[in-house]
Design brief:
globular; alpha/beta; 41% helix; single chain
Length: 232
């Protein structure tokens, strides 16, 4: 069963989201604040595929819920609901571990499409990948396509499912300059409604995990005017 957790303190918006997610074939858990969201997540032993979190909530805001959910699981998909004026919250949410954000007001079609895209990645993460070679080695890095894990010099690096897909794209195209549009299409899909800056924020997040000096990246470098490449 496809299960989504929605945390939104405004009842009218929450009911609107729940109705449309149920129409999309999802089982929905409803929370009116951040504390209840974590209680619901823990009560079902983490059996949640996607969480949709409003940034501004009483008791515990969506950013803190995002942090705690990401600490519990690297595989759960997380979408933040933000207002147009919450630009910094969008970036903070992504750096905290969210996979995507949707700006209010939004259409039901847009939200369900975003949830569908995240759910497909989560489902893919739970299945072994059939490939002739399960491991791609580039220098001190090993990317295991079957277990969907990354190691650097023998140590595991924890990745979200979005981060893994980005690394898979770089590792299967070493030394190639990949544009933001290419990365966006490969990882978020052709029907993604959002902005390309989500790629930049996730690159920053990856550099913090894999680079010794994230501000002076050795491996995941910027190609000005184009995008990024993995230096072999």
């Amino acid at each position: 069963m496809k299960r989504v957790l929605i945390a939104e303190d405004e009842a009218a918006i929450r009911e609107f989201v729940v109705i449309n997610l149920k129409r999309g074939g999802y089982e929905v858990l409803e929370a009116c604040d951040g504390v209840q969201a974590l209680e619901l997540y823990d009560s079902c032993a983490g059996d949640v595929d996607v969480a949709v979190l409003d940034v501004m909530m009483p008791n515990m805001d969506g950013l803190e819920v995002c942090r705690q959910l990401r600490n519990r699981s690297n595989n759960i998909g997380i979408i933040m609901l933000t207002a147009k004026t919450q630009e910094m919250d969008k970036i903070t949410g992504l750096m905290t571990g969210a996979d995507d954000y949707v700006t209010k007001p939004f259409s039901p079609t847009e939200l369900v499409a975003r949830v569908d895209a995240i759910y497909r990645r989560v489902a893919m993460n739970n299945k072994p990948v059939a490939t002739a070679s399960d491991i791609i080695e580039l220098g001190e890095f090993k990317l295991n396509l079957r277990n969907r894990t990354l190691m650097k010099s023998g140590s595991f690096i924890e990745l979200t499912q979005v981060e893994f897909q980005m690394m898979e794209y770089f590792f299967t195209n070493p030394g190639a300059a990949l544009s933001r549009t290419d990365i966006l299409t490969r990882v978020w899909g052709n029907e993604y409604f959002g902005e390309e800056k989500i790629v930049d924020v996730n690159i920053r997040r990856l550099r913090m995990k894999i680079e010794k000096e994230p501000s002076q990246p050795r491996y995941l470098t910027t190609i000005w005017g184009v995008g990024y490449k993995w230096v072999v």
